[in-house]
Please model this.
Amino acid sequence: MSALRERHTFFVTCAPGLEPVLFEEAKALALPKLERQIGGVRFEGTLIDAWRANLWLRTAVRVLLRIQRFEARHADALLENAMAVEWERWLAPEGFLWIDAQSRDSALDHTRFIEQCVKDAICDRFRASTGVRPSVRKEAPDLRVHVHVSRDRVTLSLDTSDDSLHKRGWRAAQGRAPVSETLAAAMVMFSGWNQRAPLVDPFCGSGTILVEAALLAANAAPGLYRPRFGFESWLVHDAAAFAKLKDEAAALRRELPRKLRLVGLDVDPARIDDARANLAATGFDDRVELEVSNATEFAPLPGWNAWIVTNPPYGERIGEAAETEELYRAFGGQLREHCAGYRLALLAGSPEHAKALGMGGLKRHTVVHGGAERVLATGEIR
Ligand SMILES: C[S@@+](CC[C@H](N)C(=O)[O-])C[C@H]1O[C@@H](n2cnc3c(N)ncnc32)[C@H](O)[C@@H]1O
Model:
């Protein structure tokens, strides 16, 4: 059977808390035999389904192809089972390899040791059959292998994505504390934005939310800007078939509706420059209105009936907490006074910050970002 038609089990990971959005996206993409799980979604499909998942899923972090599951309480079992995998199907003997391991509640709990064992197993297998062994390389390896150990059950997976999918390839400017592209996309989708009403980000920073909103409204696949996915270096890869799929995805990108308004504001002129650079990199710079403005004076024109999707400062540096809480209080006051009936999706640095907005009736959802639990508050402003 051709490698492209063979069926595999895949696991698509996402940031904790984003599983519902990822599941909806995966459903819309018609990924076969889809199941929602903790930390992501699972599906059973072909490599072509995995290509589509990598190209189109806005909230996915990586797409893993499961190749082997077994029990191992000690190194011998790990070595033996890892050596039984037909690695030569995926990787050339002189290719480059990288292994990442995670372990939880297991006898094998030293991740470096687990990585070493799996590397040895793969290299020994190659050396025995070809006399040559792959080398180890972290940056752009030809094959990235994930080892997940939980309660002594080992899952070996091939990483079809390689670098995290939040690295879309369009970011020209970092700004300060940018929200990840995947979370920005999730915020826009969580907000229920109808893609017709204006979308405003009053703390736009480097413009991540605006870029992701524009990509969504333009039906542009988020993976189109990415220079490379992991599967492109695999031995079984069919570059011509993937190029065709990419061309088909590119053809689905449409012009933004002429009347659509996307607005980004920030108090720091340098951030507005960052946002402009990122919007230019995606070709949306002439479609987004950017302005230096203080959110404590935020007062959009009446009748806009906009969606406000934003992430104000987290206030995590020493001495900033009280000042940031004051900023949330002032911004919440502006929203209540000027934006009744608007819809809000706001990523707050902490539950206290979300509370400081002074707005009851919002739904609160916990998401993990930057190693901390954040609150995504969504709903109608009253
Ligand atoms: C957490 S960052 C937003 C990051 C942004 N989502 C991105 O992806 O780059 C918060 C932003 O709020 C801006 N800011 C801080 N105080 C502000 C204020 N009073 N009015 C408007 N913007 C403000 C900062 O300059 C910073 O760019």
Observations:
- The longest helix spans residues 111-130.
